[in-house]
Amino acid sequence: MKLTCLFVSGRSAAIQLEDGGLYNTVKPYTLRINGECSVTTNQVVTNLYGLWPDTDYTVEVLDGEEQVAVISFRTAFESVTLNVRRFGAVGDGIHDDTPAIQAAILCCPAKGRVLIPKGKYAVTPLFLKSHMSIELAEGAELCLNTDRRCFPILPGATETTDETGDYNLGTWEGNPLDAFAALITGVDVEDVSIYGPGKLNGRADQADWWVNRKQKNIAWRGRMVFLCRCSNITLQGVSVCNSPSWNLHPYFSNELKFIGISVTAPADSPNTDGFDPESCKNVLLAGAHFSLGDDCIAIKAGKIYMGSTYKTPCRHVEITHCLMENGHGGVTIGSEMAGGVHDVLVHDCLMRNTDRGLRVKTRRGRGKDGVIDEIVFERVKMEHVGAPFVVNCLYFCDPDGHTAWVQSREKYPVDDSTPRVGKVIFRDVQAEDCGACAGYFLGLPEQPIEQVEMENVTFTFDKQGKPMPPAMAENVEPCLNQGIIAKYVNRIVMKNVHMAGQAGEALSCEQVAHVEGA
Fold first, then answer.
1. CA 343, CA 358: separation in Å to the nearest integer?
2. 56: which of 189, 215, 218, 392 lies 20 to 30 Å off by Cα?
3. What is the pLDDT of residue 380?
């Protein structure tokens, strides 16, 4: 077994037990901490709480009586704890606890902790400050106010005084637009950790956030956690539910960790993406569980204004030991990706009952900086996924998404509006009970997908499945139990790819320049 310490705060730690399991370990283990207290775990990424600051700890992993791994670490220094109850927070779910909790945050000194103990705290958006931690204790729940009129608005693009640039706060689906602040909002903060077994509840199921979802109402819908130009931020252990829109949205931020979290929403909730890093770098998502109404994970880099103006790709993203359920896509890249997405590694993950598994979305108009390249999916298992692999360069999003310019299969000139998909790799993937098809790769006629590699991949098919369009583009017919369908691709490389039970050919190609190993 390989044992790794992913994160340590003053009062918590997250360790990763790699025994060959994906989200859950192959078997349960006992953790013995400093030779005394013991806990049982069956999760690869396990959170530990109730630790003491500035203290050495040794954690032994026991399989029965046998020690199979051991790790040591020292918890972080903590200067002081500020309990929000002492600032006047009531925690009855009725009283507005926003001023008390915000006061505790603003008064917290460097390396201090704000403690939110057991209770239901009715709040409007809270704003972070640097060099501190927030602990959501067992049974603590921040409940978002259901009246949007009480919320602060983050303005979109605001022209700078010298009229040479803009200052961007609000954002909606890749454009700088006025948006409500998130339950937890960070702007230009650094060195912050939010941890604990508590909950962030957006209560959108009790409000009107999901009504007329495509219309702006005062401002665009807010998130649960929004991090704007932040660095060195960790969210550990917290459960997030019922967001007004996207749940976790880091934006132009760096050095981020999201560890051992849970994100849930009803299956019919609109735009409730689980995790949407946008124009961020050096991001780790480990041990997360998603079950919601849209893409579980969607990696983004803005629409054309943000992409061409700031030229900030989303890059160096690692997603590991996560469970994605019941969403539109397990891991999605795009469609707002005009700044580019590079160097993404998704590994040791499990997907169940999602419409699509590993999904890339782009379209004409995303621009020459909209390059998707070096995307690797490996050691992934999928169960009852409609279309495990989808790369769609004709995605019909935005008001002009169904126009001939976006959807035409004619070869247009390559210009500043043309995005590009480079290399996408699928390695050691097992897809059981596929629905529509094994894979659907649709490039641009003028800019084909450069290279798709599949190695050690197996597909089986669900004979009781229902037909569905594998990709959201015009003239893509619903299909059932088809193999791999590829159109407008420069190169396909297949090594040890097997499928059983498909209807028709294993590989169907149109305008594919080179196929190796089929």
1. 15
2. 189
3. 98
